[in-house]
Design a protein that fits this description.
Strand content of chain A: under 5%
CATH class of the largest domain in chain B: Alpha Beta
Structural class of chain A: mainly alpha
Structural class of chain B: alpha/beta
Number of domains of chain A: 1
CATH superfamily of the largest domain in chain B: Bordetella uptake gene, domain 1
Number of helices of chain B: 11
Helix content of chain A: over 70%
Order of helices and strands of chain B: HEHEHEHEHEHEHEHEEHHH
Radius of gyration of chain B: 20 Å
Oligomer: heterodimer
Shape of chain B: globular
CATH topology of the largest domain in chain B: D-Maltodextrin-Binding Protein, domain 2
Largest sheet of chain B: 9 strands, mixed
Distance between the termini of chain A: 61 Å
CATH architecture of the largest domain in chain B: 3-Layer(aba) Sandwich
Strand content of chain B: 15-25%
Number of strands of chain A: 2
Largest interface: A-B, 54 and 57 residues
Chain lengths: ~500, ~325
């Protein structure tokens, strides 16, 4: 512990060098912008700027690139709240209640809570990374295919159990997502499935075009047909500060989201996306007023925004401690480190203490910078709403198209996005929630692969899921959840979902 | 297969010759050159391609742009390059796996979107030999022990790979065949990183990986190297015997090379060979490669073309050996 503090002090000495401060700032600024722009996610942002870092040394490069990553988690909330367009995939959940808050005139408060929640989560994530990285990383390694399978089953059950719309609608959307996720090459046999001889479909349908299409384009297409959106909610500057009640409502969600996000973050996978879904579900579950969710619940912003931030920090644990990238973004960061002659792995801390501790310390500094950067800039982002839709919407559509094209330079992706936009419009008209579809799409390939890998390991024996402690534990939680919902069903008790469904039915009739 | 190669080779040569060098030679390169990287950023082709582009720029006095066209394990980028205008302004950086795509397509009765004949090899930058690893929890200390146990328990020991027919599946298939039809159970993943994760968690007991990708784990004692696939012992792992020393006539490298589309004028190819040679031997590029934990394994066109033919023959035989997987 003492040596940790000593090393951390050394790290701060490095992080506070003017050069390094500047690169941390640059990374955070670019990250925020990347987060704000729909479609251009942290992955494309980091990739585009990777060549720029060749002139820098390894520490500066990783400080700047990591700044883009966690900065984008801050920025992603802004468009979600103001325009119901997720700036990047992990902000999908923020759209729901964040935008509802904005429609109630609390846009400023939502932005502020998102920024503060992100800051708390980011800082906590770094502290946890500093202290518990090595033991946690060992646990992450224990997550083999059977544990993944169990975790994803739990995720899906959570989704169905917690979802806002009716169970049937949620499962229908999730199934469509899972089916879309089946498109592409079968990793186990090499056959192409539903690819229609398009090489681009061989890799499956990307999350970015689907998310941008469903949430971004779908929203924009639906807006002109809504008569209600005549007035734009442009919050005044003094409305930026959340009320005491809103602070109180967001205190525990931030805490829970932070912890949940970090734990999910260290587990390899699309951590920061899943973490925000799970945090949202958890908040709704523990809330005393679950019917408020979807209509501007503060907890629905605070929880997921904190979760995605601490998850993005948590994802660094296996990368730095073991040299295992847990997702595409840590993989790119690892690539950047390797270009600079630093190979992440168990030897990183001893071989390159400057890089490791400088990087960790820069994240403390960077999170402070982001808070300072985001709160004043919130006012600037709010002005975006004052732009007439006639100018703003074509611009957003352009951003969507460029952003989606930029990810893989694939015109097929743009078509997927356009088709998903039309689908998103239709779903909205029939009041389906597209979020489970996106989650299904994210989960499908990982789920299928880990299920089949597990069965390869056990030679076809399904008992493997129960013979390994972690996966057995997760499956028991699944069974308990299912039993609980069956109880409600059998006893015909009205739970919050029924109340909500009634409320929604009432709303739909209006 | 030899005939196929011969035909392919001569087709490429004929195509190169057919375009008369009257193509404005002194004008090339008149504008920016695009270097297609067929893998996600941070992948093998990317980490070599980017410093190469930086080193090439001052030599050709034009900007060299790395364009990422990732997808289908490198097939998308290769296809884009194969169908690009063969004017020397679109080049491709690709790795070992470029040789396998057409063979896999044939296996599934698909018309290959491109074959080796669609490319003119320009140069090879690096060739990182692969190393056969067992998890630290496994008892095997030598390759002979592993081979013996695998004979006793066919289809019970698991190996992970970067994917079916992927760059890390091929060497394992070569070893299984050379050791008299051994049977290991295959745990395919979707990349070198996930394959390493599955291996380190002891969910797979055996893994063939490139030396640079696994050196940190070997040094940390998490992975035990039993044999390596290079022609001679590696400087990084001087104690690990080569497959040849152990009596298996096997060689397998993860290499990165530069290609031009078929039909690129001979004069342009000549120019590129000279420029590439200079760029690859520049300090900038050499430092970048050393930073990756690799050594420059430069081969000019003639040598590389020969190496590629031999390498592709190995890969094609391995793909045939694996065959269609039932599932």
């Amino acid at each position: 512990m003492e040596s940790t503090l000593f090393s951390l002090a050394h790290g701060f000495a490095i992080a506070f060098q003017p050069d390094n401060l500047w690169y941390a700032f640059l990374g955070c600024l670019v990250g925020t912008l990347v987060g704000v722009l729909p479609g251009i996610g942290p992955l494309s942002g980091i990739s585009i700027l990777l060549p720029v870092t060749f002139g820098l040394d390894a520490t500066q490069a990783v400080i700047m690139l990591a700044g883009i990553y966690y900065g984008s988690q801050y920025g992603g909330s802004t468009t979600s709240i103001l325009m119901r367009i997720p700036g990047e995939a992990s902000s999908v959940m923020t759209c729901i209640d964040g935008n509802a808050m904005a429609k109630k005139g609390r846009a400023g408060a939502a932005l502020c809570i998102a920024a503060v929640g992100s800051w708390v989560a980011g800082t906590f994530g770094v502290i946890a990374l500093t202290v518990v990285a090595p033991p946690l990383a060992t646990i992450a390694l224990k997550f083999g295919p059977p544990e993944y399978t169990a975790l994803l089953i739990l995720g899906l059950i959570f989704l169905a159990y917690m979802s806002s719309s009716s169970l049937v609608r949620t499962l229908l959307m999730a199934c469509i997502g899972l089916m879309l996720g089946m498109i592409g090459i079968d990793n186990m046999t090499g056959h192409f499935r539903y690819s229609f001889n398009l090489t681009e479909l061989g890799d499956g349908i990307g999350i970015v075009p689907v998310a941008v299409g469903l949430f971004g384009l779908g929203e924009i297409l639906a807006t002109p047909s809504h008569k209600v959106i005549g007035e734009v909610i442009a919050p005044k500057f003094r409305e930026l500060w959340p009320s005491r009640k809103e602070w109180n409502q967001s205190f525990w969600p931030i805490g829970r989201g932070t912890l949940l996000g970090f734990i999910i973050g260290i587990i390899p996978g699309s951590a920061h996306i899943i973490s925000s879904f799970l945090s949202y579900a958890l908040e709704r579950r523990v809330s005393k007023n679950p019917e408020e969710f979807g209509h501007g619940a503060v907890a629905g912003v605070a929880g997921p925004e904190s979760a995605n931030n601490s998850a993005s920090t948590g994802a660094f644990v296996p990368m730095l401690a073991l040299g295992i990238p847990t997702g595409p973004i840590p993989a790119v960061l690892m690539g950047a480190l390797m270009v600079h002659g630093v190979s992440p792995g168990p030897q990183l801390v001893t071989d390159h203490p400057d890089v490791f501790w400088g990087f960790v310390a820069s994240m403390y500094v960077g999170n402070l910078m982001l808070l300072a950067l985001n709160l004043p800039l919130v006012g600037l982002f709010v002005t975006v709403l004052r732009i007439p839709y006639a100018y703003l919407y074509p611009l957003i559509i352009m951003f969507c198209i460029i952003g989606v094209y930029e990810v893989n330079h694939s015109i097929v992706d743009v078509w997927i996005m356009l088709i998903m936009g039309v689908l998103g419009y239709a779903l909205r008209k029939f009041s389906f929630d597209p979020a489970p579809l996106v989650l299904g799409l994210v989960i499908a390939p990982i789920f299928e692969q880990s299920l089949r890998q597990s069965l390869i390991m056990s030679n076809g024996n399904y008992l493997i899921f129960f013979s390994r402690p972690i996966s057995a534990g997760l499956l028991i939680v699944c069974i308990v959840l299912l039993a609980m919902s069956a109880m409600t069903f059998i006893l015909k008790r009205k739970d919050w979902r029924d109340k909500l469904a009634e409320a929604e039915a009432g709303e739909a009739q209006q | 297969m030899d005939r196929r190669h011969f035909v392919a080779g001569s087709a490429a040569a004929a195509a190169a010759l057919a375009v008369h060098p009257s193509f404005a030679q002194d004008a090339y390169p008149a504008h920016a050159i695009t270097l297609i990287n067929p893998f996600p950023p941070g992948g093998a082709a990317d980490v070599v391609g980017r410093p190469f582009a930086a080193a090439l720029e001052p030599i050709v006095k034009q900007s060299v742009v790395v364009d990422t066209k990732a997808g289908a394990a490198g097939a998308v980028g290769a296809q884009v390059a194969a169908s690009a205008k063969p004017d020397g302004y679109t080049l491709l950086v690709h790795i070992t796996s470029i040789s396998g795509f057409a063979e896999v397509d044939k296996l599934f009765d698909r018309t290959p979107k491109f074959t080796r004949a669609d490319f003119i090899p320009i140069a090879r930058f690096v060739a990182d030999p692969c190393v056969l690893l067992v998890n630290e929890k496994q008892p095997y200390k030598t390759l002979a022990e592993l081979t013996a146990d695998a004979k006793k328990r066919p289809d019970e020991i698991l190996f992970s790979s970067s994917g079916l027919y992927g760059a890390l599946h091929i060497p394992m298939a070569l070893y299984m065949k050379a050791a008299g039809g051994l049977k290991f159970r295959h745990l395919p993943t979707n990349g070198g990183g996930p394959a390493l994760t599955a291996f380190l968690g002891n969910n797979a007991q055996v893994l063939v990986s490139s030396i640079s990708a696994s050196l940190a784990q070997i040094k940390a004692g998490k992975a035990r190297p039993l044999a390596q696939f290079g022609g001679e012992r590696s400087k990084a792992l001087p104690d690990v015997p080569t497959m040849k020393e152990l009596g298996f006539n096997l060689e397998y490298y993860l290499w990165v090379g530069l290609f031009a589309p078929k039909g690129t004028p001979a004069s342009v190819v000549t120019y590129l060979r000279t420029a590439t040679d200079k760029a690859a031997h520049s300090d900038l590029f050499k430092t970048a490669i050393a930073n990756l934990g690799q050594e420059l394994g430069y081969q000019d066109q003639a040598e590389f073309a020969k190496f590629w033919d031999a390498d592709a023959a190995r890969i094609e035989s391995a793909v045939k050996e694996i065959g269609r997987v039932q599932g």
